[in-house]
Amino acid sequence: MTQDTTSVREKGRAVVLAALMVLSVVAMGAAFAAPAAADSPDDVNLNGNSFWEGEEVTFNAIEGSSLSGDKVIVTADNGDGSVVKELPVNNGNATLDTGAIGTGTFEVADGSNTTSITVSDQDLTLEPEFDSVSQGDSLEISVDSARTGYNLTLTADGLSTSDLANALGAEASDEDDYVLIQDVSSTDSITIDSSSLNQEEYNVSAGVEDTDAEDSFSFEVTEQSDTNIEFGNDGTATGVLGDHNTITVNTDDASSVNLSVTWTPDNEEITIFNGTVTANSNSDQVKIPVNTHELLKGATQDELIGEESGGSFALDYAMNASADYDSSPAEVWSMTSSFDMELTQGGSNEDRGLFRVTDRSTESLSTYAISQDAYDEISGGNNIAAVAEHGTATDGTIAEGDVLVTVVEGTGFFGYAENLSENGVELGITHTNPGFGGDEVTLDQLNNGLVTNESAGQMAAFYQIPEDNESNEFNVTFDVYSEDDVDEGEAFNPYTDTTESFSESFTVEEPTLSFDSDKYEVAPEEGQEITGTTNIAPGNEIRVEAGAYGDNGFVEDGTGVVQDDGSWAAAIDFSGEVQDTEFDLEATNRAYDDYADDGKLVDEAEGVIGEDVGATPSLSISTDVPSEVAVDEDATLTVTVENKADSGTAAGNISITVDGEEVTSEELELEAGGSQEFTADFDTSSAGDIEYSVTTTGDDGDQDDSTSGTLTVAEEDPGTGDESEGSGDDDEGDDEGGDSDDGEGSPGFGVAVALVALLSAAMLALRRQD
Q: What integer pLDDT is reported at residue 513 of this predicted model?
């Protein structure tokens, strides 16, 4: 039987074609079914979800299983199982409007599976920074909610959505029925630019696009103010932490303005302090010193605010960081060194600024000695710079009865200057040599306090050096302790990271007073100076009394002021007093009598009117002359006359005598330190001794100075010429010896040169043979 292979192939081909046709039909059916699947929502599985009230959610599974049955039942999870809502299932999906069931916990079941959901109320609060805004300025509105990432809707009465969107800026979009701002965080803000808005009041309603949360607020756009209320110093108040930081407010024509200082950690604004600034009627600038040491402690007006100028500041509120922020002031300062400042008036923002603090430091410790009078002047004010002007640095010593001043230069302690030790700052004086078993001397502060000058960065303490302290040694110390360098429970400075220490030492001396001379000559004129020295403080006065007794008796006095170097000069009027009258001098300072060993600080001297007591400058002589010369050799006597006194003019005469004959006689007048030179030649034509003398005489006829001597003129020694000839013979002998040396060699050449010449000739001969 013949097999029809062709029909078999054809049948096989037909089977394959049939199979392909079936697959094509299936594929076409699938292609037409695809749009229906694309229209179904994404899979949403309810499994303990949380929603905000008003959200609408479509789901198709519970606890991971697709919905079964034709409805889903929502019951309140309150124990009684009451049905709150039934949801139809269409095409495997159910839709829940959480706004229809309220807030709380609910059970959702489809007959086969059950889950629990929570619906919460979304709060929404919008709060404008001010109730009004000057046209052209911006107004910030804070937006707070428990929810984050939601879409905010806004409408305003009397304002189109397009105009509102324009005022809100680029982040807002006009959705016709409302303005939409997307992806708003739980703590956020929006800003309204009032430039395009009319001067009127606006009521704004706000909501959330997918929940029932809503709120509203109002603000007014007012006319732009003509006043220029602003912070001074380019909007920045800068001070040292621990001192006062002064805020300057330029009030222009405004009588008052609100000041607020705030801090914004973690996007949450916290008020540090606020209050009202009021300018005086004749002032348009108010300066407000803020004690940074009291800041963040809930301080009172008197504690926080220093003495204002140009007006006043009334404190309304001051933050207590420990209570209000759960942090200590030191912890807050470790997080920030600046706060924001804001000026407002009538609900409108006028200016913003920065309140900034810098770190403190100590520069130096110095000690000075001043007089009691200087202390009375300085301690009554804060002119500590006058200490250096009226006193002198102790330089290791100070007199009993002086006032010791310790001056600290630095910053960061003026806010608590009255409580230094409580804040880890110690200023002390220690007696360092009381001796074994001796009592330690304590120096007490005068006025029981400090004098401070914050603007100059100076602080001073005053101590009276008591009597009976001669030779006692003291050490002055100033320390600012950091927390790391004190024991637990001891005070430390909250503004210092590294301990600072300074010290000065001094020894106490008995007060002394003395004249510069035992006897003074004065002219019968006014303004005659009597001088002396003392070791008591500069600025003290020395009283000098001059008294004579008898027929020409008188009593005159003058006062000298002690200078930095301890010198003093008292001018006394001796005009009209009789020539040659002798008198007594007494110098005293009664304020120091109790501190002197003999109970009186005094010195005595003598004086005379017009009498020479050796104080008149003399004409001193010095000479330059050889002691011996040969006959006919030049010889000159050179004389120098000098006035060696420290002051005054010396006048008189000089006489030079040579060989019994006065060769020079001249008058001369020299200022203090001046000199004049004279010369006289000697006649040396014959041998022998020539005597000379020089004398100076003052203009009073008395001899001032003199000197004399002898010049010897010697005959020429006959042996001298023979020695010269002998020397010449020796020289000739040397020359002959030189000729003899030359005779031993070739004329004009040495032996070495001759040998070289001989060798050269031999070599030349050999070369020619070659």
A: 96
Distances in Å between the Cα of 3 and the Cα atoms of 6, 7, 8, 11 are 9, 9, 9, 13
The predicted pLDDT at position 454 comes to 94
Contact 379, 363 (CB under 8 A): no
Cα(59)–Cα(67) distance, rounded to whole angstroms?
9
> Are the C-beta atoms of 161 and 172 separated by less than 8 Å?
no
**Rounded (5°) CA angle 159-161-165:** 105
One-character DSSP codes across 523-576: -SSS-EEEEEEE-SPTT-EEEEEEEE-STT-EEEEEEEE--TTSEEEEEE--TT
Q: What is the secondary structure of 49-112 as a DSSP string?
A: -EEETT-EEEESEETTEE--SSEEEEEETTTT--EEEEEE-BTTBEEEEGGGT-SEEEEEE-SS
Segment holding 207, helix H or strand E: strand 201-208
Which structure tokens are listed for 575?
């005009």
Contact in structure between 416 and 423 (CB atoms under 8 Å): yes
Give the side-chain half-sphere CA count within 13 A for 761.
6
Q: Judging by DSSP bridges, how do beta strands 61-62 and 45-46 pair with one another?
A: parallel
Q: For 198-219, what is the mean pLDDT?
A: 94
Q: What residues does 62 pair with on adjacent strands?
A: 46, 65
Mean pLDDT, the chain, whole residue set? 85
Share of the chain above pLDDT 70, in %: 85
Smallest Cα–Cα separation from 697: which of 731, 632, 650?
650
**Residue 513 CB burial class (10 angstroms; 0-12, 13-18, ≥19):** buried
pLDDT for residue 298: 96
Non-local CB neighbours of 458 within 8 Å, separated by 6+ positions: 384, 385, 407, 408, 409, 452
Q: Are 396 and 371 in contact (CB under 8 A)?
A: no
Structure-model confidence comparison of residues 759 and 746, the more confident one: 759
The one-letter code for the residue type at 459 is M
Looking at this protein, which amino acid is placed at residue 318? A
Return the amino acid letter for 22: V
Q: Once rounded to an integer, what is the mean pLDDT over residues 174-184?
A: 92
CA atoms within 13 Å, Cβ hemisphere of 8: 4
Give tens-digit pLDDT for 617-651. Answer: 478 899 999 999 999 999 999 999 998 876 778 88
Cα angle value 520/521/522 (rounded, 5°): 115
Residue type, 266: D
Distance CA 192, CA 179 (A): 13
- Closest residue by Cα to residue 229 from 279, 289, 274, 301: 279
Structure tokens that stand for 177 in this block: 């029925």
Q: Which of 44, 46, 58 is nearest to 112 (CA)?
A: 46
List beta partners, residue 603.
587
- Could you give the angle at the alpha carbon of 411 between the alpha carbons of 405 and 415, nearest 5°? 95
Pairing of strands 425-431, 392-393: unpaired
Q: How far apart are CA 491 and CA 423, in angstroms?
A: 6
Q: Give the pLDDT of residue 700.
A: 64
**CB contact burial 421-456 (16+ within 10 A = b; e otherwise):** eebbbebebbbeeeeeeeeebebeebeeebbbebee
pLDDT score recorded for residue 111: 86
